[in-house]
Design brief:
With 281 residues, this protein is an all-alpha fold. It has one domain. Helices cover 79% and strands 0% of the residues.
Length: 281
């Protein structure tokens, strides 16, 4: 299976996950805890497999990814609930930009080989920054954008580390084990947040339905996401494909006449400028 096809599958999964809490309207921390717990229990079966990668870099990378993924997932659930799913999806644009430039030191010779290529990249970056400026001018979404930008920095670091740590020929067992580490860490982080905020660990029928559905989604999405990141020449390519989430949501919302808050023109310009950036690179 090509990495492009894997990315398209993950794109569909990401659209579902981003849109979910706009509909469910559940507590973001509790939702992430229960869906992560469900996924962790299922993925724990991989612990019975022999010859798993238990090296320190592998484990630490999974733990770091789990922590930042818990923060990002909870934030996306919160933003989707409060502002709408297209706002929550804006993190993909920032991730792509940051990951692209963070990966440059590992691919510097190819980057500077063509002056035309370098100029094209610079133009795309300037267009993307300009579109981001017009997005941030809206007082309604300025605060969410700041939150997503800060989270994008740490999630981008975890992606780069994961790309460096995971081998290109990673086995399915190790991929599932890595996903187990991520989801188990998310479960503990979310449980800690629930304990600090004195949230009840009771499971309502609505929470059960939502967390079970999203738990099934993440069981597929988490391993496939890392399989795509490992397979792509540049991890930014994976996130560039995910940048079409706002466009898909825009079409979906227009078809079903769902109101949201994101300015249309700047979001489209930002999305396509970042997609072009990944394409020409």
């Amino acid at each position: 299976m090509s990495w492009q096809l894997i990315c398209i599958i993950v794109l569909i999964i990401s659209v579902i996950q981003t849109e979910a809490n706009r509909v469910l309207q559940l507590n973001p921390i509790m939702l992430n805890f229960w869906r992560s717990l469900f996924a962790t229990i299922v993925l724990s079966l991989i612990l019975f497999s022999p010859d798993l990668n238990t090296s320190m870099p592998f484990i630490l990378s999974g733990l770091l990814t789990g922590v930042v993924s818990a923060l990002l997932s909870t934030t996306i659930f919160h933003l989707s609930k409060q502002y709408g799913s297209k706002i929550a999806a804006l993190s993909t644009q920032t991730n792509t930009l940051i990951i692209f430039f963070m990966w440059l030191p590992f691919d510097w010779n190819n980057f500077i080989a063509s002056p035309l290529h370098s100029v094209s990249v610079t133009i795309c970056v300037l267009i993307g920054v300009g579109a981001s400026y017009f997005l941030s001018r809206s007082p309604l979404i300025r605060r969410p954008l700041k939150i997503l930008f800060l989270l994008s920095i740490v999630i981008s670091i975890s992606v780069i580390i994961g790309k460096r740590v995971l081998p290109e020929n990673i086995s399915m067992n190790d991929l599932l084990f890595y996903s187990f580490i991520i989801m188990a860490t998310q479960t503990f982080v979310s449980a800690g947040a629930m304990w600090v905020k004195a949230y009840s660990f009771s499971l309502t029928p609505r929470m059960l339905k939502g967390s079970f559905g999203l738990g099934c989604v993440v069981l597929i999405g988490c391993p496939l996401s890392w399989l795509a990141i490992v397979a792509t020449p540049n991890p930014a390519y994976f996130h560039a494909i995910l940048m079409t989430i706002p466009i898909i949501l825009l079409i979906y919302h227009k078809l079903f006449k769902i109101d949201d808050y994101i300015p249309l023109i700047p979001s489209i310009i930002l999305t396509f400028s970042m997609m072009l950036l990944a394409y020409i690179s």
